[in-house]
Amino acid sequence: MSGLPDPASLVHGTGLGSRSHLQRVLVSELARLATLGDPAAPRRARLVEPGPFEAALRREARERGGAVIAEFKQASPSLGPFAMGTPLLAQLRAYREGGAAAFSILAEPAYFKGSVDHLKAASELKQPRLYKGFVIAEAQLAEAETSGAEAVLLIARVLKEHTAAFAGAARARGLEPLVELHDMTEVGFAQAAEARLVGINARDLSTFNLGVPTAEPLRRVFPEAVLIRESGLATPEDARAALRAGFDAVLIGEALMRSPDPRDFLSRILAGLR
User: Model confidence over 220-236: pLDDT tens digits?
Assistant: First the structure.
């Protein structure tokens, strides 16, 4: 429909071993595509930037000194299930009350126990939502669109030189592309995509081991983008340190899902910024 590559070629062209967490997730998503059918034509108007997801992050970064994207995540490939049965809307309300600027909601069902139904249900809270998945096909962009998500994650390590094409296809569906980088070697893919939302994942996506990214080199390349630190933020102090180190926003999932009081966790991040 939009000149995107064959999904199988993306999955088999990652260069990752068959036992890597990311590769197993991608193989699972490739199989799931058969259940999605042919993607419908775009229903929304083409994105006019900035969209509501970007605008919310910029507003909070300007007014509070940083923004938080709070994630609903019940499992992961490395940990297995760790927060199954958490009531979706109660958790998201706690996020909103704690000051989250936006939500990230897992859509991948096999390893993260995510669901597009979670994205649809979250519309009740009127917060911008990120479709957090492993996009390799137009059908997933169509799924994100029909779920009501405002933004969609695009992983440069997976999409590589096709990142720009996927970003264009996302914008054609009214979706804001958040381009995720693992390291500075992938910067060119985000530049080609004209990314306005740039995430740096603190995890090595092949092993899900933690690393420590910094904002400074990204800021030199993307002076006008919203820079987002993802993964590896275990405490409010970790999140504040990332925001003070130059990131505009942080994305937090596991720590919030494990917290007995996610509202307080978020409040402690934001209260200590200014």
Answer: 999 999 999 998 899 99
Q: pLDDT of 108-120, one tens digit each?
A: 999 999 999 999 9
Alpha carbon distance 269, 250 (integer Å): 10
Q: Which domains does the chain have, with CATH numbers?
A: 7-37+50-271 (3.20.20.70)
Say if CB 228 and CB 201 are below 8 A apart: no
Note the helical H segments in the chain.
Answer: 7-12, 21-36, 52-64, 88-98, 116-121, 138-147, 156-159, 163-172, 187-192, 216-221, 236-244, 254-258, 262-271
User: How far is 257 from 147, CA to CA, in rounded Å?
Assistant: 22
Q: Which two tokens stand for residue 253?
A: 């999932």
**Residue in 251, 240, 246 with CA at minimum distance from that of residue 222:** 246
Instruction: Give burial (CB, 10 Å; 0-12/13-18/19+) of 1.
Output: middle
Which tokens go with 84? 């199954």
Strands 67-72 and 102-106: what pairing?
parallel
